[in-house]
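Input chain follows. Return structure tokens only.
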Amino acid sequence: MARDIYVSDADVEMSKDVESLRIDRHLVSDLASFVPGRKRRMLDRIEEHGRKNPLSIVPVLVKHFNDENPKARSQVRASLARLTQSELGELALVDCMFSRDLRISSTAASILEERNFNSMNFLTTFKQVKNLVVQARKADVFCNDVEELVVDSIHTYREGRFDQAMTNMMMAKDLLEDRLEWHSHMRGYIKDVLKITPVLGRSGVQVDSIQDSIRNLSTAVQGREYSDARSLLDLRRQETRLWKQLWSLEEYITKRIKVKPLTELMVLRETDKRLLKSFEELVRSVEGKFQDGKAAEALSAVELYVRETVSYGYLAAEGKRLDTKDEAAWYTMWSIGLGLLKLVAPIVPNLSEEFYQQYFRDREGSPSVHTVPWPEPFASLERPAVVVEGNSKKQKKNSK
């Protein structure tokens, strides 16, 4: 049996959970029963086990969501609505979208579409990509990196970042279509060359070297690394890791700082000044990496800075000052929080804009992260700190 790109947790839980298998077997007959106690016991079992392990029960309910028996169908839908009101229940419903059971996946996508999850388009594209992967495997076309991108796209979708997940899934689809087309053309070329080698041989041409070259080319095609695709994949993965780090930091900052702080630089402590200075050094490092075409490395440097310098360094020692409304600490962390979004905006504009709108716009006033000025300590960075890809050479020349 061919391996799947992604095995949903819902399928795993439903297959190994004995209680959910029993519920599945008796669900319709019990819910449609004329004996009130029998129906009540089944509903209690669904509710009790669903609260403990929604991943095992939600797919069972989705499976019977459109059952022919109206009494059973009504009860199933009511139970599913209650269980998926919780975050875990809704995540279980999302995971059902990727079930191997087409009835479960299609029904889950239909339910989520009504909740504005953009699920139908995503599921359709995912199914197209799965079919392309099957074709690629049969043709010995390298697709391991694309499969990783697909799995990352699903995880991104489960986090609620629907637009980014769809972008990544479409990228996987385009990559596979291009590779299959290229492979088809290459195979045709190899066949044509091999057809004429006997004729060339009879004409006195040494064909051994030609055949060896063709064999080497065929082997290289099967194991080709596709460095461009790998770079894209690395960038997407790094963006996902950075998203989590920034989300945690911006939540921490804005939950404690309720108004935009205004503090003179002279009141800052040495620890505050060191952090602000380290950020300017980070800007220079990120600018250099991005200009050199190393976007993933640039984001990795930002992620490391947030985790090590800001979280484990400054906040571990000075974080309590934010809770006591220390104006200098507020000023420092507000500047860092907004500065980080300004820094990564040219590399990951959607991510930075999302966080700016959520955490800073109402207090900064500017309509976009791309138009808001740099925080006061970094006013000298008002020129673009990171250049837009494609204009890097021109920007370097102008900066000189």
